Structure formats: C-alpha cells, structure tokens
TrEMBL record:
Coiled-coil intervals, chain numbering: none
Name of the protein this chain belongs to: Type-4 uracil-DNA glycosylase
Recorded family membership: Belongs to the uracil-DNA glycosylase (UDG) superfamily. Type 4 (UDGa) family.
Domain Uracil-DNA glycosylase-like: 47-209
GO molecular function: 4 iron, 4 sulfur cluster binding; deaminated base DNA N-glycosylase activity; metal ion binding
One GO-annotated biological process of the protein: DNA repair
UniProt superkingdom: Bacteria
Matches recorded under InterPro entries: UDG_Type-4/5, Ura-DNA_glyco_family4, Uracil-DNA_glycosylase-like, Uracil-DNA_glycosylase-like_sf
Keyword Plastid: no
Organism of derivation: Streptomyces cupreus
Keywords, in A-Z order: 4Fe-4S, DNA damage, DNA repair, Hydrolase, Iron, Iron-sulfur, Metal-binding
Length: 216
C-alpha cells in the first residue's frame, strides 16, 4: 500500500515513535523517520547520545556536516569546543546527554559537489521533530537542560525566545508537559565564528558555570 503524502503543515515524527524500549528503541526508530522533508537530503538521522541517566541534557539546533557524516551529535569543531567549556565549568562531558532539536542536517549548496552550507531549520521543521526531543526528555529525565543557541530555545520555549535576553540564567518552564529547569547559552558554533573568540568562549564558560551550580 502506498502511503499518502500528508499536507506540509501536518508533518510530524509522532507516527514513527516506538511505544516502549527506551533510548535504544528510540534511536532505531528515528533512523527511519520520514516525519518531515529534511530526511531526503541528509545522509542519516543523528540522534542524541551520552549518559542515559544524565543530570544535564544539552540541546542544540541540528546536526552539522561532520555529525551528518558520522551519525553522532557534536563531533565536529563546535562539539570539541563544547566539551572543553563543559570541563572548565565543572561539568563532566561524559556525564551529559547531548542532542538536537532537529535530527537531520539541513543545508544548501552554491554549486553541485561544493561544501554543504548549514541552513537554519524552520519552526515547522522543529515542531515536526519535537516528539523525538520530548521522548528523550521523558527517558533521560535530566535535572537541567542547557539550551544551546536561539534555534534550540525557540524549539523548547517558543518563537519569542531571545538567547541574549536570558543567557546565563536559570529558567523554570513546562516543556512537553514536564516541569523543567533550563539554562540558555549561545551555541558553541557561534563562538567559533565570533570576532573576539576568546571573549565569546569565556561567556560560554560563564553560562555553563551557572548550570554547574544549579545542579550542586
């Protein structure tokens, strides 16, 4: 039987979620997700990874080029910088769970076979992918969510979110039906693009220190 294509505003990952099985089952099911058009061009689904009982969950925007190729989140330059900043802030990277609001790499090319250029996901795409993030939160049950950047913040807290207004503060919000504590900060990739990279890095570490104190 040929599946009927849903209208664009009906895109959602919901039908692809397994009813049980924890993170391993979620990861297997996400590999076959067709809940929005982003799967068509991406190499593979990039699901969350890390400690299944982590006290801290870090949520970024979407996989980048290296993550799309390797199938793991935060394995590129931004991920390495994040690990360094976490350790400096007093959070063991091995005791965290890292994931993204969107599980497929969205990109554009100026020409065929040229470098793939990151393109921000739309609110509709983030909403379609939301059931995976909700399921991860329900399984991991972190004490704190670190929100990495504006796109992740919009996915979790709504379109009015502005990272510059609330970064480095502890927020208490209901996320996917669960009361959560969150500390927003910038995405580590923005540090790599900053004119004053050292100042931007120090700002990231400062925000992560707030997160570290929040779980003491």
């Amino acid at each position: 039987m040929v599946a009927t294509k849903a209208p664009e505003d009906a895109y959602t990952a919901e039908p692809f979620l397994p009813s049980h099985g924890g993170l391993p089952a979620l990861r297997r099911a996400a590999a076959d997700c067709r809940g929005c058009p982003l799967h068509r061009d991406a190499t593979q689904t990039v699901f969350g990874a890390g400690n299944a009982h982590a006290r801290v969950m870090l949520v970024g925007e979407q996989p980048g080029d290296q993550e799309d190729r390797q199938g793991k989140p935060f394995v590129g330059p931004a991920g390495k910088l994040l690990d360094r900043a976490l350790a400096e802030a007093g959070i063991d990277p091995d005791d965290t769970y890292v994931t993204n609001a969107v599980k497929h790499f969205k990109f554009t090319r100026s020409e065929p076979r040229k470098r793939r250029i990151h393109k921000a996901p739309t609110l509709r795409e983030m909403t379609a992918c939301g059931p995976w993030l909700a399921a991860e939160l329900a399984v991991v049950e972190p004490e704190l969510i670190v929100v990495l950047g504006a796109t992740a913040g919009k996915a979790l807290l709504g379109s009015s979110f502005r990272v510059t207004q609330v970064r480095g503060t502890v927020l208490e919000e209901e996320i996917h039906g669960r009361p959560e504590r969150l500390v927003p900060t910038v995405h580590p990739s923005s540090v790599l693009r900053a004119d004053d990279r050292e100042a931007a890095y120090r700002g990231l570490v400062s925000d992560l220190k707030v997160a570290a104190r929040a779980i003491q």
